[in-house]
């Protein structure tokens, strides 16, 4: 018995993940065709050449079919899921004195855009990291920034664990409401996040840390309300909040904050969409088949 084996690997995109790896083994049974072929080839010299041609054609046909067979989905191997959703609630840090930032938004997350960034963000959401997160940087038309824990000890834990950069995915633009990690160069992502604003946010994406991981799908306009506190750009607060928590911003009670963010399953998202449609129909003023004027 002779055994021939070959291995072929197909890698997807520029990433390090292989979508398919198969081993093809061909067994040749002893004596199955050897004797008839030898007998016929001795009396018909052209028959041996014909056998060789047929063998080459059948091998080419099998190889072509193997190459054209769709590669198995690698999402299971990479831990990918269908799009996940994150629901965030917002308000002013001192609600009695300012109500302009009250609201909510839903993020549609995409692991295929930046797997490492996606995994870190979802870990933070599930841990409750974004509870009472101040939106300390607001530059209208460009971006809003958050992502410093209200607990300095939790912040220090993640500051010590920066992420490696994700490769850039072509064709992804930073429109209004696109979510990404902020950073300071190569392999610098920790917990700091930003939501892009338009029109200037479209310039984002060239830095190594600027990789989209999701986008607001229901209420991107809420970004506009985060800058209505009247303080201007208070990015200088970032270092103090990292060291001391939200107490460092006690003189800025009108800053917007994220009250909490929670993972929303696809089923929960579908239910939320139904509720939104029902609410929209109710707000139409439609009653008894007549629309109020």
Produce a short descriptive summary:
With 293 residues, the protein is an alpha+beta fold.
Please give a structural write-up.
By secondary structure, the protein is an alpha+beta fold. Helices cover 29% and strands 25% of the residues. It has seven helices and 13 strands. It has a nine-stranded antiparallel beta sheet. A two-stranded antiparallel sheet has the order 1-2. Helix 1 crosses helix 2. The longest helix is centred in the N-terminal third of the chain and has 24 residues. The chain is globular, with a radius of gyration of 29 Å. The N terminus and C terminus are likely disordered.
The main β sheet shows up as: 9 strands, antiparallel
What is the CA-atom radius of gyration, in angstroms?
29 Å
Quaternary structure of the protein: single chain
Topology as a string of helices (H) and strands (E) = EEHHEEHEEEHEEEHHEHEE
Helix and strand composition category = alpha+beta
Share of helical residues:
25-40%
Count up the helices. 7
Number of strands: 13
Q: What strand line-up does the widest sheet have?
A: 5-11-3-4-10-8-9-7-6
Mean model confidence by pLDDT = 77
Percent of sequence in beta strands = 15-25%
How would you sum up the global shape? globular
